[in-house]
Write a structure and sequence with these properties.
about 100 residues; alpha+beta; Alpha-Beta Plaits; 3 helices; elongated
């Protein structure tokens, strides 16, 4: 299982607002159902699942602004692919919370 952080920024749209693009990108994630789990944050989206599914969904997410008329899209991607233990978003947060209690 891998965890991906992705930020997709449409450029040259004539507006500084991106909320409509974000909503359409999230519809792509919702269509993946239980194959991926995601959490929207104010600056990016965190996605958890099998690496092949994550890379596929990110590619589809990247295409959304183009389908809406953007002529340029900047996508930033960070992959955390740990293979010695099953890493989840919740597990990573619990690990830090436990250390804060010390």
């Amino acid at each position: 299982m891998a965890i991906v952080q992705v930020t997709i920024v449409p450029l040259g749209t004539g507006s500084t607002s991106v909320g409509e693009y974000v909503a359409d990108v999230l519809r792509v994630l919702e269509a993946y159902g239980e194959r991926v789990k995601y959490e929207l944050t104010p600056m990016s989206t965190i996605i958890e699942g099998e690496l092949d599914d994550l890379l596929d969904v990110v590619r589809r997410m990247h295409e959304v602004p183009f389908a809406k008329g953007a002529m340029r899209v900047s996508t930033s991607l960070t992959i955390d692919d740990r293979r010695d233990v099953k890493g989840t978003m919740e597990q990573k947060l619990r690990s830090v919370e436990e250390k804060l209690k010390l």
